[in-house]
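pinned: reference chain
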Amino acid sequence: MQIKDRIKSFRRIKASQLKRNAKNWRVHPESQETALRAILTDVGFASACLVRDCKNGTFELIDGHLRADIAEDEKVPCLILDVTKSEADKILATFDMVTSMANTEQAALDKLIASISTESKELQNVLSTLSNDGSKLLEMIQAEDESHLLMDSFSILIDCEDEFDQITLLQRLKKEGLACRAWIS
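pinned: its structure tokens
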């Protein structure tokens, strides 16, 4: 199989000059922004934004909207792609989604997190959430009998800011005697 290389160049571009993609479907909750700010503060940029060369001196974001928003007037690393608008839409629709299809080997993640040292309290909170709260949530989901879902039911879906808030609320509601379960989407 011959795979095309669509990366035209690498540049550092002022984040405020990058055109935001009007079709961007991602919504960035406060918890994600806090986590990204923590890693950017502690480590810095470790990946490039993906941008489409609009051929008129402007560059449109495909991936990296939140990084660009956080960076504001700083220059951010960008991979300039030689793709059409249609191809950029395909990348926008699938780029992070394909990555999120990967499964987590929790023991390996916990071992990695245990090896990380940081002075940043914010980053420590992010790592703690990835390690402790994620495994608690998985245990709760895997341990429940959900055969009652085969019958008609009337439910309320509550959006939580992050996994920690979800676990806390779920535990509180169960203590109050309510039948409830975690939902991840």
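why pinned: Residues 12 and 23 are 23 Å apart (CA to CA). Strands lie at 7-14, 49-53, 59-63, 75-81.
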